Predict the 3D structure of the following.
Amino acid sequence: MLHKTVMTGLAGLALALSATASFAADVVLRLHQMLPPQATIPAKVLTPWAEKVKADSGGRIEVELYPAMQLGGKPSELVDQVKDGVVDLIWTVIGYTPGRFPKSEAFELPFMVTTGEATSLAFYDYYEKHLKDELQDYHVLAVHTHGPGLIHTIGSKPVKSLEDMNGLKLRGTSKVVNQMLEAMGASAIGMPVTAVPESLSKSVIDGTVVPWEVTPAIKIAELAPNHTGFSGKNGLYTGTFLFAMNKDSYDALPDDLKKVIDDNSGRELARKFGVAMDQGDIRGKEIADKAGNTTIMLDETETARWRAAGENVTKAWIADMDAKGLDGTTLYNDAVALIDQYSK
């Protein structure tokens, strides 16, 4: 009787293991990124993307999500982690690696961005025309931007005019954005967005530039209650983002699973990133308003002064691209035309 009971138990265990094995994914992909899971893009795009890939593949592809740099390293190292196969997928800010992808910088220039959706679609078309060589080491799933970036400062240092920028220690997002802040009178300090809360609380910086959407995740409404925006359809700046897969990880997939990845990549995915950014901007602004924060919208006359300061950064960038043999004027004009096209 004991023998029969043991054998029955073992048979049940074997059946359970067999059932588990039958539902195991054929492919497990690790997705690494720098923000907490509740932030806009992880919550609204990356998690739904992983779930849809799993569903579309009939469970054969499992995407493991590793937010907030859980697998180690710095945000600036994500592009190499996916390039070298340390992870299979990454989402990152392109500008975290200054000078590495110079042609992408056209979209970071002052007063280019309109909305996250329009500028993301423009950036994807720009990628297809100009960036495939710069990104040839990656299997690109999408590129995109955020919506209009604003200036957020501590309580004692609101920015109401260009003169208020003088001497301000502001965190910048990239080489081009830092150059813009310097041209406007600030002292630019480069750091990943994840370092902003501690830097504000320890007075390492007086403020930061970010779009509304990321402000809840890094406690901006609490730490930097002055917010400065600009008149007109164009925001001060935007950041550029890369959602990419390791080329060997992609190439190793059978054709039907490659199709699943392909069907969940491209321009429509870029649009989803942009839409999520725009919706996140609304939520971020609502949180700041509810907290009783001060939002300063500079009028057209004052905004024109900032635009004039930004024009010098744009001219210098075009000259730098020309010196690299990259035809800066064409890159800039194409970026402007694409943004205008999708913003109508």
Summary: The chain is about 45% helix and 15% strand.
